[in-house]
Amino acid sequence: MNAREAYEAGRVAHGLAMAALDRRARTVGIARLVLAGVALLLVGAIVWAPLDAGGRTRMWVAVGATAAAFVGLVIFHARLHEAAGRASAALRFHQRGLARLSHAWDELPATSARFASAEHPFSKDLDVFGRASLMQLVDTSETLLGEERVARLLSLEAPAGWPEETRGRQQAARELGGRLAFREELATRAGVVRREDRRDVEAMFRWAESRDAVPSAVRWLAWILPATVLAAVIVGPALGVRVGWIVALVIGEMGIGHLTSARTAPALESVSDRLSAVTQWRSMIELIEREPFEGPLLTALRDRLRVAAPGGELASDALAGLERIVGFADARRNEAFRFFFAPVLMWDAHCALALTRWRDRAGTRLRPWLDALADIEALASLGGFAFEHPDYAWPELTPEAMFDARGLGHPLIADARRVGNDVSLPSGGRALVITGSNMSGKSTFLRAMGVNAILAAAGAPVCARSLRVGPLYVATSMRVDDSLEHGVSHFYAELRRLKGIVDRAGEAAAARPPAAALFLLDEILHGTNSRERILGAWAVVRHLLAQGALGAVSTHDTGITAPEGSLGDRIQNAHFEEQVEGETMTFDYVLRAGVVQSSNALRLMRAAGLDVPDDGRAAD
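The structure assignment produced for this chain is given below.
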């Protein structure tokens, strides 16, 4: 069963399950209304009907039985809603899989736009984040931590740990690609929490890693005051203590309780609002702890959850304890309980003490546990990408900088429209100069190189028949923006971008072990005249090649082609061209050797309705 068939089968199965659960929930809802009506009728009969003592007793028994049945239906109804939530999350997993396969961008989350940065060396130019992005195509995470980890993998500025760490992610992604049931269950357990309820947990991390202690006075008062009030209420009347004194004692303790709550409120609030997240983490971690992984990276991440807990306690068990404490703390959300019963019982103080004990026992492990969870969720995203694209190649990772691909395509282009091309940059200090007419595919080809280098560094398969790639610092200059606010022209903005690429090439050459910059320059220096463009472009390219960088430059200017002399054997000319039959112009997007011999600007101007002559001279 291929990915589309698997997702379609899951969509149908979970859709039917949701429909059945909805029908049952409606039936139970009607039954609850009926029982409520019966209970009212029975109470009415007790009050107004002429019944003897035996009849009233039987009526009260019937009311009790009806109430018990009503409570049972409430519990059952809640479980149906929980099951419906799980079915809905599972259905969403399969629907989003189908949306990714169809490139239905509007049906996928676009929350990754927050990771976009104009200062990043490539993410904006290569559509890594936002709508119709690489992130939308790869990311299947449901938690904020998992999404951040996927974003980090797809925006690596340097190939750290190359090639061992990258190869480890490859192996993990291969394994998870074949574990559809695990990936579905992981997404389902996370997906029961609404996305808008998935808050940033940094405040909870700060609490878990802090050492703020509950004052000793509060520790003693939390036990002494409730015991004193309870004894006064139970024993006081028998000893002749006046009711007024007992009431005054209770009110006084309530005041102390409210003051104490103000001291403990910050600790409680830091975790109370994140109960749903705790539940989400525990359930996901419990699933991971049970999964029989085989690969070394996945096994190590799972074992971090199994053995890292103090005293050999599983991470899921520790989080279950935190979940119980938070559940007790959230009882204070009931206003009546919060203002009357909680102060008398010193409820907040006891919850704060329980949280302190949990933090002292396991708090420092919370971040490592969730780091492991985020890593596995990110690897599951890479595995899902591999599952959805079985025809993509797993790149061969080489220790030396290079980029050699066969059938290289852009994964954001649908399979039916995508054209693959070969490209060979077998070592550093080499470049392609790509000429071609408008709309022929130059920019898309450059982006295909960059996107596949990103996928390879992340540990994912690439959109190619094969790819041999080494450690590369990707750097691009494609979508350059001017700024009226800061007084920066388009040309100067491009110069700043090129300076950043030159600097990255130096960083890559100085790295240990050595790497290389993969530079991708689209329409280099097109904001100035032809003579200065040619001189400036070759100055930049020579500097990059001298630092061992490799890459590609696209241009309309045929003056920027492989020169004679010292650089001639290190630079290849290639081009895209249009095909013209009569008045019809088409593109095959096939990369050809050599310099383009045609142009289409005037044809495109006429197609757009502009009156220009065939030879470019001014019309009479």
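Interim note for the steering committee: Residues 195-387 form one domain. The chain has 19 helices and twelve strands.
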